[in-house]
Specification:
With about 280 residues, the chain is of the alpha/beta class. The protein is about 35% helix and about 20% strand. The strands form 4 sheets. It has a 6-stranded parallel sheet, sandwiched between helices.
Length: about 280
């Protein structure tokens, strides 16, 4: 790579988990790089498939790490899924396999969430009126219960009603400080196997919508943007499909062992260990 890849770039798109932070800890170089970008008046966007928090909660998390990002520059799979329903199906009653952040994004746009309680295994599965539910929406759910799964299956298998099956994201795993845990994609797989249904639409990466929304908000072209992600099958594939310069960061899910299986769709333009590796390169501009 003979030329500096940041020449002509004014919009910087970042995945969150595994790139900027793991849980509540910033990853090497993340805060320094974001601070440097802000000093150079670059546009910064967070594009995350994490559906467990609201945009306001992500904004607060970043502020706790020392970075202030406008809320409109934080695009989550939860928010974009709620926005999709608000635009295309505002009257549908949704049953959500997911955490409170996803439910709150739906409620904030005036959408009806049919399950607002904890749904512990002490509850009777069939107390819920399945006939009044129009769709099942999935996201990562660390409070998943047998009751939730059983109810979602019955909704999807309802022969008297054509229910929808929509997912916020398909990430099979989620990176933590201790290791990987099941992600939103694991919820999809369970429901597909148990219901015999296939998910109809996945809103988050690698779907182009997150990237396109960021470009529209920033007023930038794809040639003026660069994206940093840690997952080749979602982050990098999505950026490649849109035509945005892609950086694979090895501080999250993807390891060097995974690089032998790269395809044209999942091959990044640049590979770095973490954001610390590129600070000196950027300082040269």
């Amino acid at each position: 790579m003979s030329d500096n890849p940041f020449i002509g770039k004014d919009t910087f798109l970042f995945d969150g988990d595994g790139v900027l932070y793991k849980e509540e800890l910033a990853l090497p170089g993340a805060i320094e790089f974001l601070t440097l970008l802000q000093k150079k008046e670059k546009k910064i966007f967070i594009l995350t498939n994490n559906s467990t928090k609201t945009r306001k909660e992500f904004q607060a998390k970043l502020e706790n790490l020392g970075i202030k990002i406008p809320i409109e520059n934080i695009l989550t799979s939860a928010y974009l899924t709620a926005a999709y329903f608000s635009k295309h199906s505002p009257d549908l009653n949704a049953y959500i396999i997911g955490e409170e952040g996803l439910k709150e994004e739906f409620r904030s746009l005036g959408l009806k969430v049919m399950n607002s309680g904890k749904e512990s295994n002490d509850e009777a599965i069939f107390d819920l009126d399945f006939s009044n539910v129009d769709c099942v929406v999935t996201g990562m759910d660390r409070n998943l219960t047998y009751v939730k799964l059983a109810r979602a299956i019955n909704i999807l298998k309802n022969k008297d009603k054509e229910t929808k099956f929509i997912a916020t994201n398909g990430d099979m795993t989620f990176p933590t400080q201790q290791g990987l845990i099941p992600g939103g994609g694991a919820m999809i797989t369970m429901l597909e196997e148990l219901s015999g249904r296939k998910v109809e639409l996945i809103i988050g990466k690698p779907s182009p919508q997150m990237y396109i929304s960021a470009l529209e908000i920033s007023g930038s072209t794809k040639e003026e943007a660069v994206f940093f992600g840690d997952r080749i099958e979602t982050d990098i594939m999505g950026a490649n499909q849109v035509g945005i310069l892609s950086f694979l960061v090895l501080s999250g899910v993807t390891s060097t062992d995974d690089l032998v299986n790269l395809s044209d769709d999942t091959s990044p333009d640049v590979i770095v260990n973490n954001l610390q590796d590129i600070i000196e390169l950027f300082k040269d501009l």
